[in-house]
Every structure is written in structure tokens, then in C-alpha cells.
Amino acid sequence: DGGITQSPKYLFRKEGQNVTLSCEQNLNHDAMYWYRQDPGQGLRLIYYSQIVNDFQKGDIAEGYSVSREKKESFPLTVTSAQKNPTAFYLCATRAGGPYNEQFFGPGTRLTVL
Amino acid sequence: KNQVEQSPQSLIILEGKNCTLQCNYTVSPFSNLRWYKQDTGRGPVSLTIMTFSENTKSNGRYTATLDADTKQSSLHITASQLSDSASYICVVSAENSGYALNFGKGTSLLVTP
């Protein structure tokens, strides 16, 4: 988990409500990512940000929004437009260097009731 | 299309036994390959990272091999322990891909007493 914190660990939401997942890092990494993980599937990229005040859509951005106002923070909002939001959400950062290694946070499990 | 295939999908072994997990990929041009361990309900943790020029790398009881010619990698676990029970994910990145990582679906390993 390193220097990446995600909160809350478990989150319950009623249908039709927006909810924001927090991701904070103290690794001083420029790049941050949000992934979604469903049972039996590989991680899928929702959004990523390579620098403050800039972010790009990933493969499954519909129904999600992000902001990157600070280097340390990359919150993800799951909107009511996301049709199947129940999943495990992982935040990650990327180090520089030859490997461009990604470090993952502990995750947030979102359940829509 | 860049793909990463892992086998087997799941595996059960007795404590103390060895096992080998497989990863085949079609990612091109190849940059590096990583193996992650993910405990249930937790974020993935890096075990090894290998570039094109590295064909083996060890991390304690974990040894990863890479054959860039056949585009295959394996993760060998020696003298398994109960704590090795987890999902093992193979991740391949392409050169100049920036943010993009290609995730396998993982192998679920259960070590029993």
C-alpha cells in the first residue's frame, strides 16, 4: 500500500446517488490512476492524470468524473449515470525511472443498494 | 490487440509444495512485465519487474522468468505457505504507451494445510 491511502474502505450507496472516493498519496509521484476491478476480470482503467490540473479518460470513463487540483489528491466521483457501479476501486500512482512501476492503494469496495 | 492471458485460472496446492503460474502476452513493442500479488480485498503489491534484457528475477520464494522470444513468463513459488494464498496478476506494458498497462485476469492460488 505504501504511501497511498484510499477512503473509505467500504462504501454503500443508494441508487441515484453520487459518491466520491478519496485517494491521497505522499510519494511525490506525478501520475495517478483509477482502476475498477470486477470478479474474474482484469483491472480496467477509468481515468488517469499525468500532472496537476490535467486528466484523461481511460477505457471505461462513462459515469465517472475526477479532479486533480493537487499533486497529492485524485478523487473519483461515481455518478448516478454509472449503470453498474458495484465494484472494487483501486487508485494507483506511477514512479518514473526505467520501470515506470505502479503502486496501488488498498482499495475501496463500493456497493450500491 | 494487446492481450495478456494467464493460466491456470485457479490452483489449489498443499502447503510446502511448489507451483508455477503462466503468463502469455501479445503486447508489442514490449517494455516490461510485472507480477503482482493481490490478497483478497487489498491492493496489488509488486513482486517482480522484468525488462526485455532480463530473463529471471527472484524475490524470496518467488522467481519470475521471461522469454521475450516466445512472449511467455512464469512465476514459480517455492515451498508454498498459507500466506501465499492470493491472486497473482501479470501486467505487461508496451514501449511509449505512457499510461497504458495490459492486465491479465489473474490466477487465484489457494494453499491448504
Describe the structure.
The complex is a heterodimer of chains A (113) and B (113). Chain A has 113 residues and is mainly β. Chain A is 0% helix and 50% strand. Chain A has no helices and 11 strands. In chain A, the strands form 2 sheets. In chain A, strands 2, 4, 5, 6, 9, 10 and 11 form a 7-stranded mixed β-sheet that branches. A 4-stranded antiparallel β-sheet of chain A has the order 1-3-8-7, with no helix packed on it. Chain B is mostly beta strands and 113 residues long. In chain B, the strands form 2 sheets. In chain B, strands 2, 4, 5, 9, 10 and 11 form a 6-stranded mixed β-sheet that branches. A 5-stranded antiparallel β-sheet of chain B has the order 1-3-8-7-6, with no helix packed on it. In chain B, strand 9 (86-94) and strand 10 (101-103) form a beta hairpin. In chain B, 34% of the residues are buried. The model of chain B has no long low-confidence stretch (mean pLDDT 93). The A-B interface holds A 1, 4, 6, 31, 33, 40-45, 48, 50, 56, 58, 88, 90, 92, 94, 98-107, 109 and B 4, 31-32, 34, 36, 41-46, 49, 51, 89, 91, 93, 98-101, 103-106.
Structure summary:
In chain A, 0% of the residues lie in helices and 50% in strands. Chain A has 113 residues and is mostly beta strands. Chain A is globular and about 40 Å long.
- Overall mean confidence score, pLDDT of chain B: 93
What fraction, in percent, of the residue positions of chain B are helical?
under 10%
Order of helices and strands of chain B: EEEEEEEEEEE
Beta-sheet strand percentage of chain B? over 45%
Largest inter-chain interface? A-B, 30 and 24 residues
Number of helices of chain A: 0
Largest sheet of chain B: 6 strands, mixed
Poorly predicted sequence stretches spanning 5 or more consecutive residues of chain A: none
Largest sheet entry of chain A: 7 strands, mixed
Q: Count the helices of chain B. How many?
A: 0
One letter per element, helices H and strands E, the order of chain A comes to: EEEEEEEEEEE
Oligomer: heterodimer
